User: What shape does this take?
Amino acid sequence: MAEHHVNTPLTEEVVMAFRAGDVVTITGHIFGLRDATLIRMFDQGVEVPADLTGAVCLHTAPGVKVDGDQFIKVSIGTTTSTRMNRFTGGLLRKGVKAITGKGGLLEDSTRLLQEHHAVYLGLVGGTAASETMQIEAIEEVWWRDLMPECLWKFRVRDFGPLIVGIDAYGRNLYLETKAQAMEAMKQLHL
Amino acid sequence: MNSHNTWSNDRYQKVVEAVAALYVKALKDLPPDVRTALSHAVRRETAAVGRTVLGTIERNIDVADKEDLLICQDTGIPVYFVEVGEYSGVNPVHLEQAIREGTEQATATHPLRSSVVSPVTRKNNQTNSGYRVPVIHWEFVSGRDDVQIVMVPKGSGSENMTYFRMLLPADGVQGIKRFVVESVVGSGGNPCPPVIVGVGIGGSADLCMVLAKKAISRPCGSSNADPEVAGLEGELLQAINASGLGPMGLGGVNTALAVHVEHAATHISQNPVAVNIQCWAARRARLVIASDGSMVVGF
Ligand code: SF4
Assistant: This one.
């Protein structure tokens, strides 16, 4: 369980050093998105207004206070990633190097992450209070009509801990653990 | 006690304020029983990743306390369990209205993220309410003169991990056990384990599902009053934790903090079972309205 403190944008070299089970913290910028954002990007093919090269994308729908043109954070955490599994390829083709959320992604995403030399970083679900404190500013909000499912750009400091749930070598800790747990259940002969 | 102590308009207005405060309290202040269960889990955990996850959860609860922040970003679908005492004098139509207004008031004034949309258009009217929502379950209790409202902001990561099956009578309790354990383990990390597993058994299909939801709203680790059902709760907890799925589904000995079973009589040819999972952020808060109108907030 190595620890990595990294800055964004992420390079291939940086993410190739991550192994399943390692712990990562991130300083720099992360992009927030989720169901409706990804539908707009990939199903409706609307051009993405930000450069996602080397980006970290977080599955989220923040709670914010809107004050004129300013967005003030109320609660920013994460959501279940498997719902957005089918958008992994699209994000990686735009240069995204790390997807973060909770619950992991499925087999096809595991292969795509390996092909694109990218990783999935698992946040601890439900720990929005900590994450809200680690977010220093909401720098940009695109597609405000989707509130709260806009495209967000956050500035973060020591964001984490993030657990490398799927590494760039094809290991998926979520699926491995679940398969083992299912097997252990069979042994109980319920 | 008398049945003529009708509530004044002023009292319903106070309930609106109290419900708004109740929703926010539930989102910020984790009940003591859940905190205790989590600290036991930390002490028991043997897996390295599991310890990292549980340590992060404990720190998050501290941060939420100190910084006055929401524990989790998901403001949930608002669910209320209301117990109406026989001599409370409440008008349920007015109380329902007050609960809806309180929910909307909390959303606007805190402000809270609105997590509620139309199922057809997916439109979010930014109020955390909508057609038939907040969800309100009523129970009418004889002999009492108070009203109690338990608020559960039910997060979606765990709510999406809901299961129901009409088993056969011949599947017996054994079939129920298998279904519950497979449902929880099959959910992997999605419901944010360690979870509270709510199980409904018996009744009709609709009642069975409500019982599962009622089960997750009980204090964490409380036992069913019926010793046989309590025994089943213990067996299920042991089996689920033997799986090794662990915190956030990343491995460890803490997959569930508790299993709560609620039961009802059923039909001779039915054996319904429902599973409703509650995440570690098992948020709930209780408002007790006494017959003199005084209000106390707790868990
Ligand atoms: S499942 Fe619960 S703890 Fe996890 S993100 Fe949803 S509401 Fe929060």
